[in-house]
Write a structure and sequence with these properties.
Helix content: 10-25%
Number of domains: 1
Shape: globular
Distance between the termini: 16 Å
Structural class: alpha+beta
CATH architecture: Sandwich
Number of strands: 10
CATH topology: Jelly Rolls
Radius of gyration: 18 Å
CATH superfamily: q2cbj1_9rhob like domain
Strand content: 15-25%
């Protein structure tokens, strides 16, 4: 999937002030309010719900497109993620190529962005949270300009398990061994207090791949859906969308027990 960027839009649709750009580079994250309208968010919500209802055949523990979390009360696995989703949802595909996002990121990068990956996290009621981690991983060529745009579909609050970020620590770079594995961090060792990314539908938060972040369980009565769209700067490897998923699936297979690898698939 090749990302398109129209350079003419650079002067037409800039959305970040200099203060916002400085906030991102200083804190490792920035929130931009009301980027998408309520009608656009409703269309996305409706489309991704239709995907989940109509493609139940995909919700299989052996499908590398999906992920599950445990329910905090029952311990049962609950479906949580389609990664990716843009090839199944026209609305999601339009949003992850939306010129508003590309121009916002151009303000941050100082050059065009390239789509790297995207996933829809449904986070239904009772789903456990995400452990504290950084998104960067030590694979050869993994872009260090990697960042994520989080588009809130539902309200992100403390009750629903909003993402929490640890400001300023992106400047320390990667805090774990560069061994190509995923590592968790210990909050008490970071020395700063987290910031809860409280978002309303249509707001976005942008955070660096080196910004430590986590989330609590969804203790609300409804899902806390978010579209997580990741990018890299064009000069940092160019278009890597297909390459990333090839490497990601190879990594998933390598982590699976040998006897179960033949049952893994991507559909």
């Amino acid at each position: 999937m090749t990302t398109k960027f129209n350079a003419d839009l650079d002067s037409q649709l800039k959305r970040l002030s200099q203060s916002q750009v400085e906030t991102y580079h200083e804190n490792g994250f920035v929130i931009v309010r009301n980027v998408f309208s309520s009608s656009e968010v409703y269309a996305l919500a409706d489309d991704v719900e239709q995907v989940a209802k109509q493609r139940v055949d995909l919700i299989d523990k052996c499908n590398m497109r999906v992920r599950f979390k445990h329910h905090v009360v029952t311990g049962e696995p609950v479906f949580e993620v389609f990664d990716p989703i843009a090839d199944m949802s026209m609305v999601a595909n339009d949003i992850c190529h939306d010129p508003r996002l590309f121009n916002i990121l151009h303000d941050i990068y100082g050059e065009p962005p390239e789509l790297f990956k995207e996933k829809l996290i449904y986070k239904p009621p009772g789903a456990e949270g995400a452990t504290l981690h950084q998104d960067w991983i030590g694979w050869p060529g993994f872009p260090e300009t990697f960042l994520t745009v989080l588009l809130a579909i539902d309200p992100f609050t403390a009750q629903t398990g909003a993402t929490e970020v640890y400001p300023g620590l992106h400047k320390a770079g990667y805090m774990s061994p560069r061994d190509g594995q995923h590592h968790s961090l210990v909050a008490e060792k970071l020395g700063v207090d987290p910031v809860l990314l409280e978002l309303e539908p249509g707001d976005i938060a942008i955070f660096s791949c080196f910004t430590p972040h986590c989330s609590a369980a969804n203790n609300g009565a409804t899902s806390r859906r978010g579209y997580f769209i990741s990018f890299n700067a064009r000069s940092d490897g160019g278009d890597q969308y297909l390459k990333h998923y090839q490497e990601f699936h190879a990594w998933i297979r390598s982590k699976a027990p040998e006897e179960s690898r033949d049952r893994l698939f991507f559909r």
